[in-house]
Design goal:
9-stranded antiparallel beta sheet, alpha+beta, binds 2-oxoglutaric acid, Jelly Rolls, 15 strands, about 260 residues, globular, 4-stranded antiparallel beta sheet, 4 helices, about 20% helix, single chain, about 25% strand
Length: about 260
């Protein structure tokens, strides 16, 4: 990664990576998303606890699509349900970019699919991810990979450039109503910019970056694969009542082991 690119990320808090995935890879992702909808229905019917990882879209107005499958907004821990989305976190074009930002040893904090179905995918009010994550220092990096073209109309990511330098702040519960932007009165939302992405391109952003996304008001879905990475210098700092230790998948380095367990101080 060039020094200029690194400097851009340090100054602005985000970085666009064009054409990370090929058309064939994008097709495979769309098929896998359909399989995950069918899996969500099966887990639900069988009353399995894993069904909770497959969240319904609350603003859809209907519980099911025309084909009877659920309308999903989000799938958490995708690597547990999908080899394809597990492997995507380790994509050979992606890993060097993340290593250029936070170093060679990489652990995976989060692997999520954000789905915004046509016409009714809900908004995501402005926030900093690190305000919700038990990890310190707050220096994680998320990549958001567009699996369809992401535009202002279908609710692409929005960021406030440079806001990762504001320090950690309180954002309350993240609102997802259609017109949600932020409940904070002190934020100049005119500084917010849309980050449209062609399908297959991605945006990486710092975990202190203020970001959100609008509702999907278009006939086109907006599907996104999100992965958050951190370096082994980051500590696990659970709140009271949370498990005192947690294992994280290793993405690169750390002597090639599969997982790494962090224990709270
Ligand atoms: O992809 C989006 O719509 C926003 C996701 C987001 O902000 C998050 O999961 O922290």
């Amino acid at each position: 990664m060039s020094a200029d690119v690194q400097r851009f990320f340090e100054e602005q808090g985000y970085l666009i990576v064009e054409d990370l995935l090929s058309d064939d890879e994008l097709d495979a992702c769309q098929h896998e998303i359909e399989r995950l909808h069918a899996l969500a229905a099966e887990l639900d019917e069988a009353g399995k606890p894993e069904a909770r990882q497959f969240q319904r879209e609350p603003h859809a107005g209907v519980a099911q699509r025309d084909d009877g499958l659920p309308v999903l907004r989000k799938v958490e821990n995708t690597g547990n349900y999908s080899d394809l989305f597990g492997d995507l976190a380790r994509h050979s074009r992606l890993v060097p970019v993340i290593q250029g930002l936070i170093g060679n040893d990489l652990l995976l904090f989060r692997s999520t699919l954000m789905l915004k179905p046509a016409h009714h995918g809900s908004a995501h009010a402005l926030h900093q991810d690190s305000a919700y994550w038990p990890m310190d220092p707050p220096t994680l990096v998320t990549v958001s990979i567009a699996l369809n073209d992401a535009t202002p109309e279908n609710g692409c990511i929005q960021v406030i450039p440079g806001s990762h330098k504001w320090g950690l702040q309180e954002w309350g519960q993240i609102t997802r109503a259609d017109d949600a932007v932020t409940s904070r009165q002190d934020i100049d939302i005119s500084a917010r910019i849309d980050v449209p992405l062609r399908a297959g391109s991605a945006v990486c952003f710092h975990s202190l970056m203020v970001h959100g996304s609008g509702a999907n008001q278009s006939p086109n879905p907006r599907n996104t694969a999100l992965y958050a990475y951190f370096s082994p210098q980051v500590r696990y700092t659970p709140k009271e009542g949370q498990p005192r230790e947690r294992s994280f998948p290793v993405v690169a380095g750390l002597d090639g082991r599969r997982d790494h367990t962090l224990v709270a101080d």
